[in-house]
């Protein structure tokens, strides 16, 4: 073997060994470049059903009747005849103003009436005597006519006296201040011995009727128009058998008021500053739990419409706080879908806009996916729209 043959033989053997060392590295590189399998994603099918439309609004309790107790005569407050903060009935006496000056005025008016009645009797008897004498010219015609005119004037004075007596009697009755309505009375603003005046600015007490009471509900005009459009387009049905729109009341401590209110009417004029209208409901209040001026949440049962029940975990919110979710299209690609949520029902969001029947809604940790991502979809839980038992 020549020197050249020995060199080439060794060179070939070295190249072969080097290639053997490179094979695992090439295999690893090819393994890293293999495409990743699509992530698995659980979905549920959107299934429409009839859902009740509930509108959550702000309401305020307004008493059905409010009566400001005011004096109708001047005088000193003689006595208070009720217990503050209790229920009073109509025509119940609440205060007594010093009646003595008004009793004296009544006695004076009655005495004046009695005096004029006596004068009238005298004039009447005198005319009876003058009648035959006038025909015999025993009494002058002038005397007879003067007596007749005096009698007519006395009759007019008597009518005025009787009016004065009635006024004096009325003033005496007004010294007893009575309740004009039944309800709960406030604290007494004036105390015994205070001077009462008919033209005073402040009332002496306030009576509020608390059973039943009104609930004034503020509804944006835009929301009212949407509801009317849904009803006009046949998308919203009124509750069957309901004479009025029922309203549930949620109190300030988030407890539900046990009795249901009924909607009475809607104002025909909207507030130009707030763009809202007032809707008035009425509710019984036998335990006086609802007080005048109290704020409540009024949940109105507007009707039934087709909608979807979406699991709470499937709904996300963006920076603008608007809700959205992910759906899986026919190519198994994730898409974002903006929706409108109405309310919560158990662990579901109720929505009527943004979803179509039969669409696949991604429910397995949707925040870990992104729009445009390829996934392997697997049906997970109850279809959207059916509440599990």
Automatic annotation (TrEMBL):
Q: Which InterPro entries did the record assign? A: MdtA-like_b-barrel, MdtA-like_BSH, MdtA-like_C, MdtA-like_HH, RND_pump_MFP
Pfam families tied to this protein: Beta-barrel_RND (PF25944), BSH_RND (PF25917), HH_MFP_RND (PF25876), RND-MFP_C (PF25967)
> Localized where?
Cell envelope
The Multidrug resistance protein MdtA-like beta-barrel domain covers 212-303
Q: Where is the Multidrug resistance protein MdtA-like alpha-helical hairpin domain?
A: 106-175
Q: Which residues form the Multidrug resistance protein MdtA-like barrel-sandwich hybrid domain?
A: 65-208
Q: Give positions of region: Disordered.
A: 364-389
Q: Where is the Multidrug resistance protein MdtA-like C-terminal permuted SH3 domain?
A: 309-364
Family to which the UniProt record says this protein belongs: Belongs to the membrane fusion protein (MFP) (TC 8.A.1) family.
Q: What is this protein called?
A: Multidrug efflux pump subunit AcrA (Membrane-fusion protein) (AcrA) (PDB:1T5E)
* Source species taxonomy: Bacteria, Pseudomonadati, Pseudomonadota, Alphaproteobacteria, Acetobacterales
């Amino acid at each position: 073997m020549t020197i050249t043959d020995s060199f080439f033989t060794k060179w070939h053997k070295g190249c072969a060994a080097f290639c053997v060392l490179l094979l695992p590295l090439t295999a690893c590189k090819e393994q890293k470049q293999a495409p990743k399998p699509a992530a698995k994603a659980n979905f549920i099918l959107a299934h429409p059903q009839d859902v009740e439309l509930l509108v959550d609004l702000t309401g305020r309790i307004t008493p059905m009747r409010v009566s400001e107790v005011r004096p109708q005569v001047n005088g000193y407050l003689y006595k208070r005849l009720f217990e503050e903060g209790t229920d009073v009935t109509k025509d119940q006496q609440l205060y007594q103003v010093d009646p003595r000056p008004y009793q004296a005025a009544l006695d004076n008016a009655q005495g004046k009436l009695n005096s004029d009645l006596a004068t009238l009797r005298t004039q009447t008897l005198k005319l009876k005597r003058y009648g035959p004498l006038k025909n015999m010219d025993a009494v002058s015609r002038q005397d007879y006519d003067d007596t007749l005119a005096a009698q007519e004037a006395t009759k007019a004075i008597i009518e005025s006296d009787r009016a004065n007596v009635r006024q004096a009697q009325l003033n005496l009755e007004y010294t007893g201040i009575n309740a004009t309505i039944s309800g709960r009375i406030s604290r007494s603003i004036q105390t015994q011995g205070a001077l009462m005046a008919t033209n005073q600015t402040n009332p002496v007490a306030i009576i509020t009727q608390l059973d039943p009471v009104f609930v004034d509900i503020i509804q944006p005009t835009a929301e009212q128009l949407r509801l009317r459009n849904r009803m006009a387009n046949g998308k919203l049905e009124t509750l069957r058998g309901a004479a009025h729109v029922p309203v549930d009341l949620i109190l300030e401590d988030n407890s539900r008021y046990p009795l249901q209110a009924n909607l009475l009417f809607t104002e025909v004029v909207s507030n130009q500053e707030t763009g809202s209208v007032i809707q008035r409901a009425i509710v019984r209040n036998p335990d006086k739990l609802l007080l005048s001026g109290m704020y409540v949440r009024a949940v109105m049962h507007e009707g039934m419409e087709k909608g979807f029940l979406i699991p709470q975990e499937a709904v996300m919110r963006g920076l603008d706080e608007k809700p959205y979710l992910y759906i899986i299209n026919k190519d198994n690609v994730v898409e974002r879908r903006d929706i409108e949520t109405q309310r919560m029902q158990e662990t579901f969001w109720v929505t009527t806009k943004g979803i179509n029947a039969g669409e696949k809604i991604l429910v397995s940790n949707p925040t870990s996916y992104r729009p445009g991502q390829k996934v392997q979809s697997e049906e997970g839980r109850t279809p959207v729209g059916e509440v599990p038992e």
